[in-house]
Write a structure and sequence with these properties.
alpha/beta, 9 strands, Rossmann fold, two-stranded antiparallel sheet, 2 domains
Length: about 250
């Protein structure tokens, strides 16, 4: 699958992978910062942003998409940042292709099975009658019945777009995402290890990390380093300066 991406900057390639129901747009500001040091590729994963839609939606497909992306764009030995679902894509890619990655940064996700946590958000998005609403505030009122946090609602509503006739449509492939939520909760699809440098950044207020997870990570990523920031699950959005400096120090080997 030919993925949509934005490229900026020069130097060592740095690929950034968004999470479920996100897109490359979410990383625009941080991408601009990192582009002062690297050649940054902000990628829309399948069924998200401006990338193609498909009924197939699992980590095998996402990993193969990333392999194809690197090959098509002649990218070698990139650093990879992945948040949540993007982090699992990055981990699977690194384990399957352990010599193809330089350094790995995984944001608030662990290589294990999770009970689906976005089902309520998807239900809220499905509840919005796109053919009837005329404004984004109308959509947000409906979404508020499913998600109390205004920041999360705004994050989800970034997926709203208008078609050529002016009607609202979802940029994400909501039916495919809804049908495959369990697959996105799965753990690793590939066996093996990534022996390169890896940084795992988690939010102290997030519940995606649990006791014993560091040991689990170390079995697959022996060189893993760990750092916690005072955030929830969307670490990079809640503390962008701390996050970017943490990542830069790691990538610079400091």
């Amino acid at each position: 699958m030919k993925l949509f991406f934005r490229q900026q900057g020069q130097g060592k390639p740095l690929i950034i992978l968004h999470g479920l129901l996100g897109s490359s747009d979410n990383w625009h500001t941080l991408g601009r910062f990192f582009s002062e040091h690297f050649s940054v590729y902000l990628v829309d994963q399948r069924n998200h942003g401006q990338s193609p839609h498909s009924d197939e939606f699992n980590y095998k497909a996402l990993t193969e998409d990333l392999e194809e992306f690197l090959k098509e764009n002649k990218i070698e030995q990139p650093h990879i940042i992945g948040h949540s679902m993007g982090g699992k894509t990055a981990m699977n890619f690194a384990v399957k292709n352990p010599t193809a990655v330089d350094k790995l940064i995984i944001v608030d996700i662990v290589p294990k099975y999770y009970v689906v946590r976005h089902d309520r958000l998807v239900e809220g998005m499905k509840a919005i009658p796109l053919s009837e609403i005329t404004t984004r505030p109308e959509a947000e009122v409906i979404l508020a019945g499913y998600e109390p946090d205004p920041a999360v609602r705004q994050f989800l509503l970034k997926n709203l777009s208008r078609d050529s006739g002016g009607k609202f449509v979802w940029k994400v492939n909501l039916p495919a995402i809804d049908a495959n939520l369990d697959a996105i909760g799965e753990g690793m699809k590939y066996k093996g290890k990534f022996d390169g440098p890896a940084l795992f950044v988690n939010g102290k207020k997030s519940n995606y990390f649990a006791a014993g997870d560091n040991e689990l990570i170390k079995k697959i990523f022996p060189q893993a380093q760990f750092i916690s920031l005072d955030t929830g699950h969307w670490v990079q959005a809640e503390k962008p300066q701390e996050f970017s400096q943490t990542v830069l120090q790691f990538l610079d080997g400091k």
